[in-house]
Amino acid sequence: MKKNLMKMNKITKNNLITYGIVVVAFIIMQILVTSGNISSLLQGLLVPLCVYAIAAISLNLVVGISGELSLGHAGFMCVGAYASAFFSKAVGEGMPGMVRFILAILVGALVAGIFGIVIGIPVLRLRGDYLAIVTLAFGEIIKNLMNVLYIGMDSNGLHFSVSDAASLNMEADGTVIINGALGITGTPKDSTFTIGVILILITLFIVLNLIHSRSGRAIMSIRDNRIAAESVGINITKYKLMAFSISAALAGVAGVLYAHNLSTLTVKKFDYNTSILILVFVVLGGIGSIRGSIIAAVILTALPEMLRGLSDYRMLIYAIVLIAMMLFNWAPSAINWRERVKAKFKGKKQKTDKKEAA
After folding, report:
1. Is 206 helix (H, G, I), strand (E, B) or coil?
2. How confident is the model at residue 162 (pLDDT cuts 50, 70, 90)?
3. CB contact set of 184 (below 8 Å; sequence gap of 6+)
4. Which of 50, 69, 132, 328 would you label with 58, given CA atoms 20 to 30 Å apart?
5. CA 308 to CA 315: how far, in whole Å?
């Protein structure tokens, strides 16, 4: 009993440290913005930093905790972004801005989560490279579908077309909401850095509590040994689908935040490269490390812009940082060094505790 309580206290302590890092970073950035010590370029990056942090946390739930390789994460962001932007445009000024944005977040998360379930039911029967290829195909299908989708609205309701805006056959005062490759224009810019940080904290709360719950332990047991997990009665499909759909819904939230930070939303942002970029955040931050995903997403998103003045060497330095992070996280010698440092500090702490007790 005492051992379980100590373990629970350690988990709670680690979770509180993670929340604290986010809150402290938010306070520091707010102080820098208020005092004018941060450039307008970096201020414009604050919301995208939150977007990528949420996306990295949600993907780590699939890659790190569930142990499946997904390359279609940008597709779920795209679904959430378009669903929420469509909702905000359709509602317009009919309700207060904050209420509209909260509902848009719920709509984006719900639609992306439904897509996660629909895609996950057949796809999660696959493993390894096959799963990666199918999720990659899903992301490309979504992108190409949005490129040819036209939706308008008039007094008769919604009109759909996959050819051009003229084929919608709307009334003269009708409004085209989704305009194919041109996307959605005029989305309310409701996203702020404060809201982004709140959504990061909510995402952390959901993911960390899931990981340390009974369901999370079942998901990790499937990752570690599928046959052993199945032999003790764990429903493989149920728990893999749970992780996949929750990850998709949270990716949809990241898409909502992204869509409401821009006046024009186009599908070209949600391509294969974005999925790979988010996967890079997860791998470099440490597969299974939620805190590492946030740190990697922030550093690797902000670094190219911070180095923009060094135009000739910017990408060279960026590549060096990528290699350094990879070696620090995954090189055996670096892992052994970190363990030695951790053991050293732990030994010093135990000596201090003994002295205080004496």
Report:
1. helix
2. confident
3. 82, 85, 86, 89, 177, 178, 259, 264, 265
4. 328
5. 9
Per-residue pLDDT reduced to its tens digit, 103-141: 999 999 999 999 999 988 888 777 777 888 888 888 888
Report the alpha-carbon distance of residue 199 to residue 127 in Å, rounded. Answer: 31
| Cα–Cα dist 119/72, whole Å | 11
Neighbours of 154 (CB within 10 A): 15
DSSP string over 14-77:
HHHHHHHHHHHHHHHHHHHHHHT-S-HHHHTTHHHHHHHHHHHHHHHIIIIII------HHHHH
Separation of alpha carbons 274 and 328, rounded Å: 24
What's the rounded Cα separation, in Å, for the pair 245 and 111? 10
SS3 167: helix
Alpha-carbon torsion (259, 260, 261, 263), positive or negative: positive
Phi/psi for 310 (5° steps) reads -95, 65
Reply yes or no on whether the pLDDT at 5 is more than 70. Answer: no
* Stretch 13-24: mean pLDDT: 88
Dihedral of the CA atoms 258, 270, 52, 280 (nearest 10)?
-170
| Whole-angstrom Cα Rg for the chain | 22
If we measure between CA atoms, which residue out of 97, 58, 59, 102 comes closest to residue 84? 102
CA 355 – CA 345 distance, rounded (Å): 15
Q: What is the dihedral of CA 311, 314, 316, 320, to 10 degrees?
A: 160
Residue 61 has which token pair? 């739930």
313 or 272, higher pLDDT: 272
Which one, of 35, 74, 31, lies nearest residue 56 by Cα?
74
Judge whether 134 and 141 are in contact, CB under 8 Å. Answer: no
Helix %, strand %, coil % of the chain (to 5)? 75, 5, 20
pTM confidence score: 0.87
190-245 pLDDT, tens per residue? 888 999 999 999 999 999 999 888 888 888 888 888 888 888 888 888 888 899 99
